[in-house]
Design brief:
Blueprint: E1 2-6, E2 10-11, E3 16-17, E4 22-23, E5 26-27, H1 28-37, E6 43-46, E7 59-61, H2 69-80, E8 85-90, H3 98-105, E9 113-118, E10 121-122, E11 126-130, H4 133-142, E12 157-160, H5 162-168, H6 181-193
Parallel strand pairs: 1-6, 1-8, 6-7, 9-12
Antiparallel strand pairs: 2-3, 4-5, 8-11, 9-10, 9-11
Helix pairs in contact: 2-4
Length: 200
């Protein structure tokens, strides 16, 4: 299973590239790479600014259809992935749970997407995608679509329910991301209390 991290660059609300914001002295994206490396091989970073992330020591790939947001990032990640499936995460998700990802990757059945649902909301940037999605993604992108959820009616989707998530990640920390300074402050508080710093 390939691990795919989407690194879109500048964040308007954070005022800089949030992937490079630090948590316990390491960039957020480093935490994500370290977590995915435990269950994925290889790990790819989808970015149009590869020089910013060269310190990670993983393969960088660019959007094949630039300027179309996260949907294009998933498309590129799948295109360059090895094997039949890829786990896709955002670059600002430092508390990914390898055990949970492994469990999602091994749910019974032939699914094109395995995506968590918490409350009323799906989490498409913490989800598993099969290479069968590629043709549908390309058609969507060429039609001008940009929403990841536009893919789901076209393929076989397994919704990973909140109760299943909480079995392995009781506080749903793996879904925490950074969109505001307050989000970062909360993450720093949680990590200082509980989580070991990433290795590497």
């Amino acid at each position: 299973m390939t691990g795919v991290i989407l690194a879109g660059g500048q964040s308007r609300r954070m005022g800089r590239d949030k992937a490079l914001l630090e948590l316990r002295g390491k960039p957020l994206i480093q935490w994500a790479v370290d977590a995915l490396s435990k269950v994925c091989d290889p790990v790819l970073v989808v970015t149009n600014s590869p020089s910013q992330y060269s310190f990670l020591g993983v393969e960088m790939v660019g959007d094949l259809l630039p300027g179309r947001g996260a949907l294009a990032g998933i498309h590129a990640g799948l295109f360059f992935s090895t094997g039949n499936k890829a786990f896709v995460a955002g670059c600002d998700m430092p508390l990914l749970c390898p055990e949970l990802i492994h469990h999602m990757a091994n749910v019974p059945g032939s699914w094109d997407v395995v995506v968590p649902k918490v409350g009323e909301f799906l989490e498409p940037l913490h989800a598993l995608y099969s290479r069968r999605c590629l043709a549908f993604l390309e058609k969507l992108l060429l039609s001008g679509a940009r929403r990841i959820l536009d893919l789901y009616p076209l393929v076989r989707v397994r919704v990973f329910q909140e109760e299943e998530m909480r079995h392995l990640d009781p506080d749903l920390r793996s879904l925490m991301n950074v969109n505001t300074p307050e989000d970062l402050a909360l993450l720093r508080s949680l990590v200082n209390q509980t989580a070991p710093a990433p290795s590497g």
